[in-house]
């Protein structure tokens, strides 16, 4: 929204009342000092407020990138070394470097784009001669791995992070950060033809994908609707509509008037797709790979996953010593989430040890034999996908709270395992006030308190949940 002229039509002429000849004017709406001055309403003698006849100025789309950068023929020629359908936003990056006065710029990108890293570095240093670039080679799994701390420690004054959305806002990062989504343009003709050939007109499809294909997804919607499909672009705020992460996906609410018939994922690989499949186990999912140009039906063994995770939670309830891992790979680890679990363990007198790790491997955790249960505040998918490979239970923060009786398990929600880690109220966004607040409710028979005094592995095995003194006092007060 720009600062454009605003005119307010106050409606029909004001009613004139017989009050001794005085004309009562209607109360004007507040339209702002500038808009009121420019609108200059006038009274034509009949008591009506006349709106200005001045034509409303058309909105202007301003490009902040100077023309000398956009139209630079040498820059255009240099950019031909990069794939034409990959938008690395080179002019924008050059303008940001020049305008910010940056002298040392860190470039961070996932491994799939590292083959373009040196080309990008050469272009930036050529057109910003006083600038030194630094390519960050550590693994970058996702948007949570933005490594502003390391970039700052290396003396950089600008970080350019490629191929992920701004999961960590730019006003939170420790140095100036520019997110480049790397939009990938594809030919959607084959995709549309494949959908029309395989699905009947009138189907309702939820279209999702990674941030690289988000622009394509939104541009695809009119064409799909013209073909007779009903299109839903679900959102797990604060992510964009249609955007999903490997740990965060929207829950498709199956309302009577809007039943989603299928999920269409645009992208290669299954990692991100599995997130929305786990969160919506009853909706069939399809994947269109823009590189192989194949449309495939995708399945997921929900029963096996839930069984493995239930076994891990059950084993954790009888653990006598816990270990808490804070992921140090970029911004993966949330210290407030860590503190939340620490406080809940202290409330139950459960001993624990803290561990800082950039990457979590079974062999390393096996060295600490006295720890009987691990909770990793890093990537939930590590536990979901690879938890069975660890010698001890490896829980996500959500599973840890379930084991401690502070969250309901997925079995009470129709078997839906939540994938909302970085959603608005997800555990990946835990705030300090959540750590300070008391438990919302005491343990019940549906969840073991896990303080190790009942000698039972779970309530389902006949265990009677032990009640702490504080909980007993609270229950007596309520009754």
Automatic annotation (TrEMBL):
It catalyses: L-histidyl-[translation elongation factor 2] + S-adenosyl-L-methionine = 2-[(3S)-amino-3-carboxypropyl]-L-histidyl-[translation elongation factor 2] + S-methyl-5'-thioadenosine + H(+). Its EC number is 2.5.1.108. It holds the Pfam family Diphthamide_syn. Its cofactor is [4Fe-4S] cluster. One of its GO terms (biological process) is protein histidyl modification to diphthamide. Residues 18-55, 458-479 are annotated as: Disordered. Keywords: Iron, Iron-sulfur, Metal-binding, S-adenosyl-L-methionine, Transferase. Residues 469-479 have a biased composition (Polar residues). GO terms for molecular function: 2-(3-amino-3-carboxypropyl)histidine synthase activity; iron-sulfur cluster binding; metal ion binding. Pathway: Protein modification; peptidyl-diphthamide biosynthesis. Coiled coil: none annotated. Belongs to the DPH1/DPH2 family. DPH1 subfamily. This is 2-(3-amino-3-carboxypropyl)histidine synthase subunit 1. It comes from Ophiocordyceps polyrhachis-furcata BCC 54312.
């Amino acid at each position: 929204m720009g600062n454009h002229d605003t005119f307010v039509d106050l409606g029909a002429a004001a009613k004139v009342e017989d009050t001794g000849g005085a004309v009562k004017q209607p109360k004007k709406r507040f339209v702002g000092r500038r808009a009121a001055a420019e609108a200059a309403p006038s009274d034509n003698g009949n008591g009506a407020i006349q709106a200005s006849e001045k034509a409303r100025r058309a909105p202007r789309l301003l490009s902040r990138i100077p023309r000398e950068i956009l139209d630079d023929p040498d820059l255009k020629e240099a950019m031909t070394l990069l794939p034409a359908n990959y938008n690395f936003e080179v002019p924008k990056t050059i303008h940001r470097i020049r305008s910010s006065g940056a002298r040392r710029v860190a470039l961070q990108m996932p491994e799939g784009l590292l083959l373009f890293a040196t080309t990008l570095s050469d272009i930036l240093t050529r057109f910003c001669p006083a600038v030194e670039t630094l390519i960050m080679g550590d693994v970058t799994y996702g948007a949570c791995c933005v490594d502003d701390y390391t970039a700052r420690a290396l003396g950089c004054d600008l970080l350019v992070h490629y191929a992920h959305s701004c999961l960590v806002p730019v006003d939170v990062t420790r140095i100036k950060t520019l997110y480049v989504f790397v939009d990938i343009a594809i030919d959607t003709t084959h995709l549309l033809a494949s959908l029309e050939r395989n699905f009947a007109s009138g189907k309702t499809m939820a279209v999702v994908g990674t941030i690289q294909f988000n622009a394509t997804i939104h541009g695809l919607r009119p064409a799909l609707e013209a073909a007779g499909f009903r299109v839903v672009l679900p959102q797990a705020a604060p992510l964009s509509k249609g955007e999903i992460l490997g740990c965060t996906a929207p829950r498709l609410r199956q309302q009577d008037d809007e039943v989603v018939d299928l999920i269409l994922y645009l992208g290669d690989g299954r990692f991100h797709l599995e997130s929305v499949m786990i969160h919506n186990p009853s909706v069939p999912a399809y994947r269109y790979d823009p590189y192989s140009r194949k449309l495939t039906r995708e399945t997921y063994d929900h029963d096996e996953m839930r069984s493995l995770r239930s076994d891990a939670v059950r084993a954790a309830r009888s653990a006598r010593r816990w270990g808490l891992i804070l992921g140090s790979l970029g911004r993966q680890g949330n210290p407030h989430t860590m503190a939340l679990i620490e406080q809940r363990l202290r409330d139950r007198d459960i001993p624990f040890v803290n561990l800082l790790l950039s990457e979590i491997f079974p062999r390393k955790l096996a060295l600490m034999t006295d720890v009987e249960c691990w909770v990793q505040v890093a990537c939930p998918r590590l536990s979901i996908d690879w938890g069975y490979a660890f010698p001890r239970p490896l829980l996500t923060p959500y599973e840890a709270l379930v084991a401690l009786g502070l969250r309901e398990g997925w079995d009470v929600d129709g078997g839906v395992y939540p994938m909302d880690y970085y959603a608005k109220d997800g555990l990946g966004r835990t705030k300090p006030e959540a750590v300070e607040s008391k438990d919302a409710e005491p343990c019940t028979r549906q969840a073991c308190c896990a303080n190790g005094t009942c000698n039972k592995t779970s309530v389902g095995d006949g265990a009677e949940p032990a009640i702490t003194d504080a909980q007993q006092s609270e229950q007596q007060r309520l009754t």
